[in-house]
Here is the input.
Amino acid sequence: MKTRLLFLLLFSFAFIFGSQKHISQIQKTAKNYRVEIKSNQINNIVSKDGSISLNIELTSNRNNFEMVMLVGYISAGSALKAGMKFDEVLITVNVPLGDGFKLVTKAKVIELNQLMDGKINTSQFVRKIKYL
Here is the structure.
């Protein structure tokens, strides 16, 4: 019983530490593009079928929401390259227009890998993502 508890404790610690490492990677990459992301704006959600979605919520100015969205994807891609595991990325950009506007997009990991590997450029990537 103690061995089981110790194993669970070590696994939990490794999971939390590993997640924090990847969150820091996302924040660092976004900061390079002058986009601030707080750790509470990054979440992993496991769906019923077992797939993992990386959700990042960002805030933009009125005119740069597409750039902020791309920075979110590039930041997620840097975490993917650093070893973070997920199946899709969901980026939500809050835009201060009128009563508020949310740009919600989703991309599969394969599309993100193509962008990060330079196989497609950003304009091709924007055509591949889904707008929700």
User: Anything to note?
Assistant: Confidence is low (pLDDT under 50) at residues 5-18. Strands lie at 42-46, 52-59, 88-95, 101-108, 130-131.
